Amino acid sequence: MTWINEEDGRVNGGLKARWRVAIVEDHLLQRNRTEELVTRGEDFDIVFSGSSAPEFVTWVRAAPPGQWPHLLLLDLMVDRAPSVDVELVKALLKTGLRIVVISALASPPLTRSIIRAGVTGVVGKRDSEEDIVKAIRAVLRGEDWMTSEVASLIAGDPDRPALSIQEERALVLYASGLTLEQVATAMNVGRETAKQYLDRVKKKYASAGFMVRSKLDFGRIAWSDGYLDATPRRAP
Amino acid sequence: MGEIRARRISPAFRRALLDPVLKDMTPLAGAAGRATGSLVESVRRAALTAAAGWQLVMALATFASLGLAGWPLMAAQLCLGAASLLAAWRSVPAPAIPIGMTLVALWGFLAGGDIDSTVVFASCWEMNFAGCVAGLLLLRRSTVPLIILMALASCTTMLLARPGWGFQFPIAVVVTQTSIIVAVRVGLAWLLRLANDADAEAAVVEDAKRRTEIARRKSVQLAEETRVLHDTAINTLGAIANGGAGVADQQQVRDQCARDVLLLSGLHGERPFVEHAGLRGMFEQQRLPVARTGLEDEALEHLEKMLTASVTGAVVGCVREAVTNAAKHSGADLVRIDATESDGRLVITVQDSGSGFAGPAPGGRGIESSIVRRAADNGFQAGVASSPGAGTTVTLTVALQPESAEWFRRPVGFLHHKTGELWGLGVTAVSVILTLGGGTDHYLALYPMIGVMALAWFASRSPRLRRTGLLLHALLIAATCAVFFLSAAATAFGQDGVVHWQALAPTGPFILLLSLRTGRNGPLWGAVAWAVLVTAMAVTIYPSSGAGGQILIIAACVGLGFSAVWARFQHLVEELSEEASRSQHLAFVANLRTELATAARLGYQRWLGAGLESAVQLLQEIADGGRPAHEPSTRERCGTEELYLRQLVQISPELVHLSRALMPTLKNARDHGVELALRLGGTDVADEEAAGAVAREVYRGISGTPPGGALTASLFPMGDSLQLTLIGPGVAPPEDPAGPSRYEQLGAVNLLELRYPQSPVMAG
């Protein structure tokens, strides 16, 4: 079993782990800024930085396994070209690659489909640097990262799963911009209880997404390359 | 001055009464559509099943009159019954059954010998029903002469084979057959038109649904394409606002901004062409510049709802033709199109100041075929006025309540009442003719019978009696029984001159009773009373005259059976009318949705265009070097623009009510320096009123927030409604909430929650 120290990034109490990170971002200025953010983290190595998902897949097919990234920072929309293919994201996740979507979040339907595909980390490009780095680390730990804006995508999904009254209220308040503490105050409950409501919402939404996912025929995705052979990634 | 006028000539009575007799009805029956198809099939099966049932009655009547000696006739009747049943479910040549029935009837006349026998009486009605079945199954124009020829042939055969029966009976057969075929065709044509209308409405619904779906998909596609295209500007503005490595290389930033400006300016110029399928299409002219006056787009859209799609298309076609003519022949460099509404009419004038012409319109200009005839075909007027040197004016006058509001679209109750009245009057008139023609009239019973029929008819028209309901029901039931009794008395209760028995006479008051439509109990009690009377009379007569009793029962079967068929058709009409009405409602709703979706899409494009302008201007300033990207003021401004543009594209144009009402609030917030975060899901509010109420609350929140302050407004489903949540330091308690509300102060911010009804249609 692998566990990572959140403070210093060491694996199983041993040497500090180094995480290989790939960046897919078509916008030059944004890519510069993302690269800067990642390199600030001492335990991150950028192994790929390119402008499109197909470019990334081509690179990874040719790269030796030792170069394969643990995490992909992915922008969803590409200028004057088709946006990121949700099927590809699903296939990448199935291999064990962790993905953080870093996006302007301009398209709620596309972002929702990405969350439903199983991406657990979604951040906005205007989020603070601290939040973005926290999101990356949370996803590497296998945790969800939910911002108020992402909660608003779930709250506004016409096909969201059925929620209890309390869960629905916590979600709507959080999605409307209240902090967790303010949500708890507004609902006359403790902070932990409010957090539990939100956790349950995430779980329900993710399981609804998983149910959709499990019906898909992954076989029809024509990836024969070893990287997409559904072998889970392992922590270094 | 040359002037051409066209008027529509379409008398309703000609279509209702003459066309069914003179014209082929197969086009009416062959019209595509579920209602027409099911009507034709159900009429065919009902007629053939009834014909089969009647053959059983015929066989019993034959046995009663002739005993076993009549077995060949009985066999023929039963074979014909079997063939009718087979024809109801399998394809058998349609004319075979009515022709067979006529031949069997003739055989019955000849085999019966005695004019007062049961089999002759039943054969009379066999012949009548043969006419009915022919009228229902054979829809070609040749059916009417065919039936009359068959009746004449039967008449001649009887005169030659049974000279002792005299002239009156054979001639009555011809008159009755002619009346039956005319009445059946008129009634069937009416039903078919009703079914055609229901199908046309259903087709409109399908078309409207298809257009709604197209509008929805267009909205989705537009939103997604726009989001992708705007993503670059949002990214650039966001990168500059974030600062750091993103803006470290000033030249790189300027290059990116210049590239974005080029891309977005191109996008802004590429406003998608919106094709107006409606009246607004008449102003989209390629050939000549148009000076437009009169009604605005919204007014035209409103009027368009009162016109059918074909009329709208014809109006646009006429206007385009007029402009084409002006471009080709007048030498004018401008055409004026004016649209006005007055006295329930839409008046459109197309005027050029070109060369004009004198006298009739010169050939080859398309005025006659493309304007005048097209107008006449679509039920509106087209006038062309011209004189040399003074240009040409084409005037289109379109009634906004066109004649296409068919008479049969009136409420079903009214139709039943009218048809019932018509039948009551018609059957009374036939009784008068038959009586005056010398029909058998024992005890002079026919005169009081006609009196009772007339009395029932007048009573059914009395508004006072109609209001009382019960009294009129009782009166008509009594009249039905009295008429049956008197019609029986006129033939000495089935013992003399039975072929003259006016067995349909009681249906006069009974169908008036059916047409009251104030409940099923009246007709039910009427039928029970009639049946009880028949039973009582048959039981009384049978000991003295077995044949009389049998004929009495057959006569009752004729009247009651006819009434049952009438009731069945009434039910069919109701179903068809309800279907048409339902379709009309659905079409209205679907059209409304399409209009809203189109309006929302146009508004969305307009707002995005406006939102983009300030972003493009800012990017241009940075690209030109006028605004250094790393300066705090530039970064702040970019942050504001980024937020504004991102929120604009996040609003789905599928939210037809909310998008129109809330997009302006973003601009309002930006103008007031309020950082508004607007979060909308994929669910719309129920109507424009609710959207307006939501917008008012958001405006109130903005005005209460000091410049530089933040306000979050979200609208998400909560239970069965949509909840507006306003969060910010300037959020005030609700003033006059229409629904449930909650206000709370949470330290630095205030929370206001309000509920609104949500739309049943969800955006994707």
Automatic annotation (TrEMBL), chain A:
Keywords for the protein's UniProt record, in alphabetical order: DNA-binding, Phosphoprotein
CDD domains linked: REC_NarL-like (cd17535)
Keyword Disulfide bond: no
SMART domains per UniProt: REC
Protein name: Response regulator transcription factor
InterPro entries: CheY-like_superfamily, NreC/VraR/RcsB-like_REC, Sig_transdc_resp-reg_C-effctor, Sig_transdc_resp-reg_receiver, WalR-like, WH-like_DNA-bd_sf
Gene3D superfamilies associated with the record: 3.40.50.2300, Winged helix-like DNA-binding domain superfamily/Winged helix DNA-binding domain (1.10.10.10)
Limits of the Response regulatory domain: 20-140
Modified residues (4-aspartylphosphate): 75
Annotated organism of origin: Arthrobacter horti
